[in-house]
Amino acid sequence: MDYRLANRVAVVTGGTSGIGLAVTNLLLAEGANVALCARDAARLKAVVDDCVARHGADRVLGMEADVRDKAAMALFAQGVEAKFGGADILINNAGQGRMSNFADTADEVWTDELDLKFFSIIHPTRAFLPLLERGRDAAIVCTNALLAVRPEAYMIATSAARAGVLNLVKSLANDFAGKNIRVNSVLIGLVESNQWERRYQAALAADPKVTRDAWFGALARSRHIPLGRLGKPEEAAQAIIFLASPASSYVTGTTIDVSGGQASHV
Ligand code: NDP
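^ Those are the sequences you sent over. The predicted structure of the assembly is below.
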């Protein structure tokens, strides 16, 4: 499928790992120029060096920046404009989930989680909006979670924050429709990434006999995923790229479920 992304400029937050890295690689393979940000300088350099080696320095910009830092997002947008002259696509992907239930979620944790989920979208969106307004077939895609519509008590704060993000995405879509900027999200179930790798490593430390296949298989079974496995980052990236591209030109204010059938509602 031709996503018609050649020479478009795409911005990916959290582009150095998991879903964001898969999106970065797919965008570059489809001919887009990509600007990515993340906090870990060493990992950012390694990813950018690899992308430059495969696609050339003209097409890649990496910036060490925290999406929760408004000033850093403004600098990131300035850097993108200076290098590429503008931006057509913003992928609000950076973040992580938090496992905690009501009893062990302190008030400060609630505040922190809500801050991360909302401002990881608000700061980049505010910073890049002037560029997107001038962009071609502009689109924003947010990496959200199935938790937004299927809350889990063991991820209580993340679930509530994700539901708020779903609402925010709809409002942004309505607000920006007149500017010809589409806004959509993907609802991720469980996708293999650094987040799950860290949890597997913790389980391995507790029990050195737990193999990767056994741990991930048990996880998929415990979550009753109909397709019987976690998703691959590349599978999430395909849905994100569709929503980011002119291939979805009449789609805004909605979601694609990327959960292997885990959603229980119709
Ligand atoms: P990874 O941990 O593999 O990747 C996260 C990326 O985001 C990294 O590049 C990380 O780099 C970056 N990042 C994290 N926090 C910040 C920050 N404050 N500012 C800038 N960059 C940041 O995670 P996933 O690929 O799994 O997650 C991607 C998104 O998908 C997240 O929003 C996550 O919550 C969501 N999601 C994932 C699910 C899954 O099962 N994988 C399920 C539901 C939702 P660095 O640490 O260097 O900053």
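The radius of gyration is 18 Å. The domain at 9-191+232-258 is CATH 3.40.50.720 (Rossmann fold).

Shout if you want it in another format.
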